[in-house]
């Protein structure tokens, strides 16, 4: 099976979906499911597109993410550190690690994300979590919730 790229970061017969069904803890981001498991390969490959100044949810979960930046540049909050990221960078998000992706460098940020088909639901920060994270002024200025 071949899923053709259309040249504009969309693919044939792949719907551009809302990033998440509910919530206001993200901005200007979409997702496309490019692969949804098959046979003995129970993984999902998704493409996320973050518009300039947009961001994903600040969250953590028990499952691992493997992310490949396919387009543009931005930043990621990973664990307790903010990193600049750009095309072709690979980011491993370990289990139970806070993370948030931002298109904060004046460009789109498009990335492939590989996860298990069966996975736990993301956890969002509580008021106590936010207070702890915001003790670092750089993190406080970066994160959005």
UniProtKB/TrEMBL annotation:
Top-level division of the source organism's lineage: Bacteria
What the entry lists under Gene3D superfamilies is as follows:
Jelly Rolls
Q: Which InterPro entries match?
A: Cupin_2, RmlC-like_jellyroll, RmlC_Cupin_sf
Pfam families tied to this protein: Cupin_2
Residues covered by the Cupin type-2 domain:
47-107
Specify the protein name: Cupin domain-containing protein
- Species of origin reads Propionispora vibrioides
Name the lineage. Answer: Bacteria, Bacillati, Bacillota, Negativicutes, Selenomonadales
């Amino acid at each position: 099976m071949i899923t053709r790229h259309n040249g504009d970061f969309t693919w044939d017969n792949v719907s551009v979906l809302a990033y998440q069904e509910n919530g206001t803890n993200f901005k200007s981001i979409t997702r496309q499911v490019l692969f949804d498991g098959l046979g003995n390969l129970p993984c999902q490959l998704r493409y996320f597109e973050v518009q300039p100044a947009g961001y994903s949810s600040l969250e953590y979960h028990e499952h691992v993410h493997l992310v490949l930046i396919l387009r543009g540049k931005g930043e990621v909050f990973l664990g307790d550190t903010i990193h600049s990221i750009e095309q072709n960078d690979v980011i491993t998000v370990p289990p139970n690690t806070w993370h948030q992706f931002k298109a904060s460098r004046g460009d789109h940020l498009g990335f492939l994300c590989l996860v298990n088909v069966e996975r736990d639901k993301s956890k969002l920060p509580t008021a106590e979590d936010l207070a702890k994270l915001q003790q670092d002024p750089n993190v406080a200025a970066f994160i959005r919730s």
